[in-house]
Amino acid sequence: MEPKLYKEYVKDGTLRIEWRDFPYRGQESVNAAVAARAAQAQGGFWEYHDLLYDSQFSGYSDENLVALAREAGLDTKRFQSDYENARYEGVVQADFQKGLDLGVNGTPTFFINGKTLVGLQSVGVFEDAIEEARREAEGG
Amino acid sequence: MLILLILTTLAATVFAGCSGAGSGGSSQTPDEQQASRTAGSPEQKAQGTGSPERSAGGRLGHPALGAADAPVVLIEYSDYQ
């Protein structure tokens, strides 16, 4: 998510951003999502999430995913155990199914207080949608 | 005979009243009650706005940034590729 939105809206309490997994591009997508949840279990989700995006062109082999955990400063032994045992795959699959139920068919898909935005968007589009949602939430 | 008829009617009325209270006093069917509890805008209500980072039983909540009571909630469905 765009850092500007974080600075503008998350820090002042206006906006909450929630992540949902929608790994629809094959097993490597699923593996990356399961690995990120293993990082989350150690409190390192967002750091690992950023590292995954930074290294997406290197692929998400098991070795790469463990290497990223090491880079993120995680307990790699615990991470490896959680990842290899697919401990959090159920969480990932539950998100995916919920997305399908809501009509998501590609990524990224955003819901801002229920309003849908599909695909990559400029910061301005998010700002407009957030401001509109804020006005509606405040009864304006 | 008249007294017997009045007592029978009274007993029937009381019985009917007890049956209603036993089902919660509502005219809704169980399905309708369920629908009432889950009604609302699809994403906001279905997903909730206060997901904890960790929930009970060792299961993970949704990763999130920002206050649980923020007036605006952005939910992103994405993958890493």
Largest sheet entry of chain A:
2 strands, antiparallel
Distance between the termini of chain B: 86 Å
Task: Please give the most extensive interface between any two protein chains, plus how many residues each contributes.
Answer: A-B, 55 and 31 residues
The best one-word shape of chain B is rod-shaped
Fold blueprint:
The complex is a heterodimer of chains A (140) and B (81).
Chain A: H1 3-10, E1 15-21, H2 27-40, H3 45-54, H4 62-71, H5 76-84, H6 89-101, E2 109-112, E3 115-118, H7 123-137
Antiparallel strand pairs in A: 2-3
Helix pairs in contact in A: 2-3, 2-4, 2-5
Chain B: H1 2-22, H2 30-38, H3 42-47, E1 64-65, E2 72-78
Description:
The complex is a heterodimer of chains A (140) and B (81). Chain A has 140 residues and is mainly alpha-helical. Chain A has 7 helices and 3 strands. Chain A folds into 2 domains: 54 residues, no CATH class; 75 residues. Chain A has a two-stranded antiparallel sheet with strand order 2-3. Chain A is globular. The model of chain A has no long low-confidence stretch (mean pLDDT 96). With 81 residues, chain B is α+β, with helices and mostly antiparallel strands. In chain B, 44% of the residues lie in helices and 11% in strands. Chain B is built from 3 helices and 2 strands. The longest helix of chain B is centred in the first third of the chain and has 21 residues. The N and C termini of chain B lie far apart (86 Å). About 68% of the residues of chain B have low confidence. At the A-B interface, α1, β1, α2, α3 and α6 of A face α3, β1 and β2 of B. β1 of chain A pairs antiparallel with β1 of chain B.
